[in-house]
Design goal:
heterodimer, A: 81 residues, mainly alpha, B: 570 residues, globular
Chain lengths: 81, 570
């Protein structure tokens, strides 16, 4: 289940934020601290989660500490939806 | 919000006052219960209205504490703080003493703290700062630097001693504060602005934007940058206009907060860099805007990075249903070296759009109006110079050029920098016969200024100035990268409405996994050391990069080559 969410999240990030579908993005690659996306893009991740999984993550959760990898985002979705 | 309608007359700050302090003291005396600032904390905490009385009494605690440790007139104080009420008070506290505050760029959640504090130490040593004022959570790290200057934080403040003291010995020519941009290069250049220059800017700019007592400014801009510091902090405080202040970190996470603040406080003026128009148009949903009205606004003023008519159209279309009208969209060309604004457009009428010939621009450097069937470039006017400010376009020999000829923009005014602080060499390079050479290319048509590009090596992302040489120095240290064989440059990003930053790095290895890992390291180091997100790290073989005849990496030539190989997209 979680692996499935990870793939959906990964595809979204590659196509819509990185705009580089062929990038090898691992489950545990650091997105913000690793310099792949900036914190502005977390708003996009938040909208994506809301549209795809039907709930809106709290604004205070949209931080580099809590949403820095594909796995962290997917686990958050799995725990909250 | 009855204070919004309090009757008072905007004074002519150019003539009426010697220093910012005289005007501040007048507010404290005459309008103590009017709101100076409405501070919007992150999260759901209630907004905090701060009256002039409370504002200057809080600021005075910093002034008294600094005085108590021997800090006085002309002494430089570096403020290493996060966005907070304490930052507002510390800045004005230092000013009240006649000292010179300078706000250090904020620590972000991905910058490497050790490197950040090391940069503070370097700045203290080369600027001759006498004290650091710190947010409480940074005090220990700063003390551990052993920089030789006292570190003052909120916990060490003296209790208030009663009526705030404003230093009325401060004269117009005294330095009021310094503005730095971030990064190794930016921190070398502290733009020193005198009380007189700032008062002149406030007078001229207030006239240009028709500032009036019914105005209310709403801002999420960081205060270490000229747009936030001047337009959305010093100007409203000095002119007695209420300021609704949102944290930049809060706004990034929750952009609708600005729109709700405008609606709640009937905001009239708001400054933003171009990317914010796209960001707000694309990233806020209707269900987050219930009950919001933006109809009170007089002007959303686009400033600090290249302005795009398309961004205005997107923003106006997105928020038309909430009361935004095209005539609210205004433009401004500004720089810290002129305190802030140089030109202003779009206040009395829509900013002009000039459709020019792409061919004439690129081959003859002339901005000729396009004829039918020709490829065009859409130029958004920056407006006309504000009062007491002149703009000229000059050629390589610094001779004035006629209208519609593209050259370097030069500025002369009564609100210019006194110097780059303790850097007479840089000051001399930047000024020519009293004109400040901006490093921007542009042209003038019908008295209005248009910016076409940049002569200087600078990338601007979301209003933030980034010096490519800083990024190249970081990439040079990454294992596997050939030192001195890297280049950074900006590429237009239409969707985001700003520039994307690209780096090209030469490596010896042809192993794909190693090359991927090198690119990953470059990205990570640049994020943690410069807080910059690279949209692409392009790993190439040795001898890919072109150098100039003098042996320097030619950024523009390599940028063109990159765009050809990448089909025009990063």
């Amino acid at each position: 289940m979680s692996a499935e969410i990870r793939d959906v999240v990964r595809t979204f990030i590659l196509n819509n934020i990185l705009r580089r579908p062929d990038y090898k993005l691992g489950d545990d690659d650091s997105l913000i601290k690793g310099g792949l996306i900036d914190s502005f893009s977390l708003v996009e991740v938040q909208l994506f989660i809301e549209e795809t999984y039907g709930f809106r993550p709290a604004d205070v959760d949209m931080t580099a500490e809590k949403m820095d990898t594909v796995r962290m985002i997917a686990d958050y979705v799995a725990a909250h939806r | 919000m009855s204070q919004h309608t309090a009757r008072f007359v905007l004074p002519e700050t150019r003539r009426a006052y010697q220093s910012l302090l005289e005007r501040a003291a007048q507010h404290y005396r005459e309008r103590p219960e009017a709101n100076a600032v409405i501070f919007v904390p992150a999260g759901n905490a209630p907004h905090r209205p701060i009256t002039y009385r409370a504002f200057f009494e809080n600021a005075a605690r910093y002034a008294e504490t600094l005085r108590g440790i021997g800090i006085g007139r002309h002494d430089l104080a570096i403020l290493v703080m996060d966005h907070s009420e304490a930052l507002l008070y510390a800045f004005w506290g230092a000013l009240m003493l006649g000292a010179i505050p300078s706000i250090f760029p904020f620590l972000s959640d991905r910058l490497d703290p050790a490197l950040y504090f090391e940069r503070v130490r370097l700045l203290i040593s080369h600027s001759g700062a006498k004290v650091v004022i710190a947010s409480a959570q940074y005090a220990d790290s700063l003390a551990a630097l052993n920089s030789g200057v006292p570190i003052v934080s909120e916990a060490a403040l003296r209790p208030s001693e009663g009526v705030p003291q404003f230093n009325f010995e401060v004269r117009g020519e005294d330095i009021a504060f310094l503005q730095h941009s971030s990064g190794t290069t930016g921190l070398q250049k502290g733009v020193a602005l005198s009380h007189g220059a700032v008062l002149n800017q406030i007078a001229s700019y207030s006239a240009a934007i028709r500032l009036n007592p019914a105005d209310c400014i709403v801002s999420w801009l960081p205060l270490y940058h000229d747009m936030g510091l001047i337009a959305a902090f010093v100007l409203p405080l000095v002119q007695g206009i209420p300021l609704v202040l949102i944290s930049p970190h809060h706004w990034v996470r929750d952009p609708k907060v600005m729109l709700h603040a405008i609606s709640q406080y009937r905001g009239t003026l708001c400054w933003m860099p171009n990317f914010a128009y796209n960001f707000l148009a694309q990233r806020v949903r209707d269900d987050a805007l219930e009950g919001v009205s933006l109809a009170s606004m007089r002007a959303f003023i686009n400033c600090s990075e290249p302005m795009r008519a398309e961004s205005h159209r997107q923003f106006a279309a997105r928020y038309a249903a909430y009361g935004v009208r095209p005539e609210m969209l205004a433009t401004c060309y500004a720089m810290a070296e002129n305190t802030f604004a140089v030109t202003q457009g779009g206040i009395d009428s829509l900013p002009n759009i000039d459709l020019i010939s792409r061919e004439a621009l690129s081959t003859q450097h002339i901005a000729r109006p396009a004829v039918a069937g020709e490829l065009t470039v859409e130029m958004l006017s920056c407006g006309v110079p504000i009062p007491n400010c002149e703009v000229q376009i000059v050629d390589e020999a610094r001779q004035p050029l006629p209208e519609r000829h593209v050259g370097e923009v030069a500025v002369r005014s009564d609100s210019m920098l006194s110097s780059y602080y303790r850097r007479p060499d840089l000051t001399e390079q930047a000024l020519f016969n009293g004109w400040y050479l901006t490093g921007d290319y542009g042209y003038i048509a019908n008295g209005e200024l248009y910016i076409t590009g940049r002569k200087k090596d600078l990338i601007i992302v979301g209003g933030k100035n980034i010096y490519p040489q800083d990024l190249e120095a970081i990439a040079d240290k990454v294992k596997g990268v050939k030192p001195g064989r890297t280049v950074a440059f900006g590429v237009e990003d239409e969707q985001l409405g700003t520039e994307s930053v690209v780096m090209v790095c030469e490596v010896e290895t042809d192993d794909e996994d190693e090359r991927f890992e090198i690119a990953r390291q470059v990205r990570m180091r640049v994020a943690q050391e410069a807080d910059v997100t690279l949209s692409d790290v392009y790993i190439v073989d040795p001898k890919w990069l072109h150098k100039t005849s003098s042996g320097k990496i030619a950024r523009n030539v390599n940028r063109e080559k990159y765009l050809r190989e990448r089909n025009g997209r990063p």
